[in-house]
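Re: [ENG-882] Designed sequences occasionally contain unexpected residues at chain ends

Forwarding the minimal case from QA. Structure tokens:
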């Protein structure tokens, strides 16, 4: 029997599982690790804890297993006289292991983060997608725009 899927904000007890997912993602991509496995997982978990003011890790949980993750990043923008405080949300590092893909878990993570950004008052939500994930974001209502530019330093 498949357990119900829950999308929720992570807590400290989830951060090592998120590190395991980030490790698996790089291995899946064929990237050579610069860390030992346990050191990386610990470093990643510590990083999540240190970034709580701006980066919120969300997880997809099925039963006791963490089967996906994503980050909602809050970037403050200069206030305007007409609107006051402003901020932009960015979705980062959405990952679902291959063994759990094709079931809408990534889309549920993205939809949850969009709703969280909306209810928290974000001006907009942006994402820098990998080519194979573009359709997930298009289905969620993202559009390509010439107004958001990028440059390598």
């Amino acid at each position: 029997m498949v357990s119900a899927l829950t999308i929720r904000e992570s807590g400290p007890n989830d951060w090592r599982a998120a590190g395991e997912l980030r490790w698996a993602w790089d291995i899946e991509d064929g990237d050579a690790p610069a860390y030992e496995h346990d050191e990386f997982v610990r470093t990643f978990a510590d990083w999540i804890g240190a970034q709580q003011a701006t980066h919120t890790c969300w997880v997809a949980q099925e039963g006791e297993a963490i089967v996906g993750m994503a980050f909602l990043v809050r970037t403050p923008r200069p206030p305007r006289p007409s609107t006051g405080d402003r901020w932009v949300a960015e979705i980062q590092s959405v990952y679902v292991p291959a063994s759990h893909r094709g079931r809408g878990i990534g889309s549920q993570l993205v939809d949850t983060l969009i709703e969280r950004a909306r209810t928290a008052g974000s001006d907009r939500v942006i994402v820098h997608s990998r080519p194979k994930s573009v359709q997930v974001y298009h289905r969620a209502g993202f559009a390509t725009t010439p107004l958001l530019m990028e440059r390598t330093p």
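QA comment: On inspection the terminal residues look reasonable. The longest helix spans residues 105-119. Proposing we downgrade this to a documentation issue.
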